[in-house]
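chain below, 230 aa
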Amino acid sequence: MPASASRRPSSSVAARLSIGQVLGILRDEFPDLAHSKLHYLESEGLITPERTAAGYRKYSREDIDRLRFVLRAQRDRFWPLKVIKEHLLEHGVDSEVTSIASRPGPSSTLQAVRLDRRGLAREATVEEEFLSELEQFGFLTEGELFYGAADLEIVTAARDLAEVGLHPRHLVMLRTAAEREAHMIGSVTRPRSRPGDSAARGEAEDFARDLGESMITLHGAVLRTKLRDG
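prediction:
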């Protein structure tokens, strides 16, 4: 056997990726993803990358699939890690998410969305001028190259409200309320995120998501009550 062949890594070894490579693969869809988040998900048992003799983490394609599922579940469904872990144990990453649609989360499906400006307008069935109006009143960020599921949800909801006469300029109080809630959540979670502690930062991020879910639930319940009483 030639010497070069004897040094060639096996396919299973070659398929293992470094943490930097994993971040490079996932950051297009999850631009805020950091080492600390991966370390935290590992500490919570959501992924189990292999370790080299020197202690470096090596991720398989299966690890990446699990990471993508976990991150989408948190972003699009606001599922807490406990629910995600139960789902993975019961159904795996290839299952239909609607099988537990009654679990926490405002959406009914898990779909990755990455749209340019024209694509966002097309998917939401609005004119691009409407996107400019949403930018003007702070519902979308100006200058974005790509938009995700939350942006599409904002535009679609704003379109529905505009059709009955509630235009973005009338909805500024909703955006302001959301900003205040985000600030409130940040003030509670920030002390949990300790500099240099990857697991603590990851835990703080998930705690913030759980609080956000509770805020959404409370807001919806109060609004339904007020509509009923009114």
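Residues 198-229 form the longest helix (32 residues). The chain has two domains: 11-100, 117-229.
thats it, cya
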